[in-house]
Amino acid sequence: xxxxxxxxxxxxxxxxxxxxxxxxxxxxxxxxxxxxxxxxxxxxxxxxxxxxxxxxxxxxxxxxxxxxxxxxxxxxxxxxxxxxxxxxxxxxxxxxxxxxxxxxxxxxxxxxxxxxxxxxxxxxxxxxxxxxxxxxxxxxxxxxxxxxxxxxxxxxxxxxxxxxxxxxxxxxxxxxxxxxxxxxxxxxxxxxxx
Length: 194
Prior knowledge:
Elements: H1 9-31, H2 36-52, H3 62-89, H4 103-107, H5 111-116, H6 119-130, H7 135-142, H8 146-167, H9 188-193
């Protein structure tokens, strides 16, 4: 795999075969081993990046692959945290007097609530609140009408709210979602590994 070799599809296939297990192990250790599906997605992202940046890889690609895998995991966690913050601050005009740290935050991890909703709902909420897409843009991505996109986002948000309310019976029905700390979405294994 020296730099003098041709970096073609065969080179990429060989890179994937040789390092896939190591990349998966790094992703799983940072995400938490119960998140195998996410670790597989991170591995795919890492090898896609390796293809795009193939000219920059040295003779020993493993250090580069490790750093890239770690960066993809951290980027994913930052995106989740950003999404959570946007979702939880909707409808809450000012931060609570305790600076945002409530009993709910100390007792619960938001991760289970996020994973409890469907993949489709998570995608809708990411498109709206993380990637800040309009109804028209979401409609274009999903191949639906803008009015349908708006309704689906509202329903997805409602389902997420319902799960959170079920997790915390002290949260008044229909009230603002709690402002959750930055570490809440990161799986326990990822928080320890930072």
